[in-house]
């Protein structure tokens, strides 16, 4: 069965554009399935690779990413 991008298409595109826009602080997004369906929805987005770890974001704590290459992978998403 095919993935459905049309149901939440405007929100998906807006989140994607925030990541690729050099003027936005958003540098990652997480997409997921909506319930038990083939519909893709926006799950979360943020400006730090550690925003997903803390309620409301807040960035990385000391020692979260000792290797700089880990952060560079996140910024590519």
Distance between the termini: 25 Å
* Order of neighbouring strands in the sheet with most strands: 1-2
What sort of overall outline do the alpha carbons produce when their principal axes are compared? elongated
Q: Helices and strands, in N-to-C order?
A: HEEH
CATH class designation of the domain at 1-49: Alpha Beta
Please tell me about this protein's structure.
- This protein has 77 residues and is of the alpha+beta class.
- The chain has a domain at 1-49: Severin, CATH 3.40.20.10.
- It is built from 2 helices and 2 strands; from the N terminus they run αββα.
- The chain has helices at 9-20, 68-76, and strands spanning 28-33, 40-46.
- Strands 1-2 form a two-stranded antiparallel sheet.
- A hairpin with a 6-residue loop joins strand 1 (28-33) and strand 2.
- The protein is elongated, with a radius of gyration of 14 Å.
- The model is unreliable at 65-77 (pLDDT under 50).
What's the gist of this structure?
With 77 residues, the chain is an alpha+beta fold. It contains two helices and two strands; from the N terminus they run αββα.
Which descriptors apply to this entry?
disordered C terminus; two-stranded antiparallel ribbon; 77 residues; alpha+beta; Severin
Helix and strand arrangement:
Blueprint: H1 9-20, E1 28-33, E2 40-46, H2 68-76
Antiparallel strand pairs: 1-2
Protein name: ADF-H domain-containing protein
GO molecular function, one term: actin filament binding
Biased composition (Polar residues): 68-77
């Amino acid at each position: 069965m095919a993935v459905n991008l049309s149901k939440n298409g405007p929100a998906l595109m807006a989140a994607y554009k925030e990541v690729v826009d050099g003027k936005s602080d958003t540098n990652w997004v997480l997409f997921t399935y909506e319930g038990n369906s083939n519909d893709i929805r926006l799950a979360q987005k943020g400006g730090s690779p550690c925003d997903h770890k803390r309620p409301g974001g807040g960035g990385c704590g000391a020692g979260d990413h000792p290797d700089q290459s880990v952060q560079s992978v996140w910024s590519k998403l």
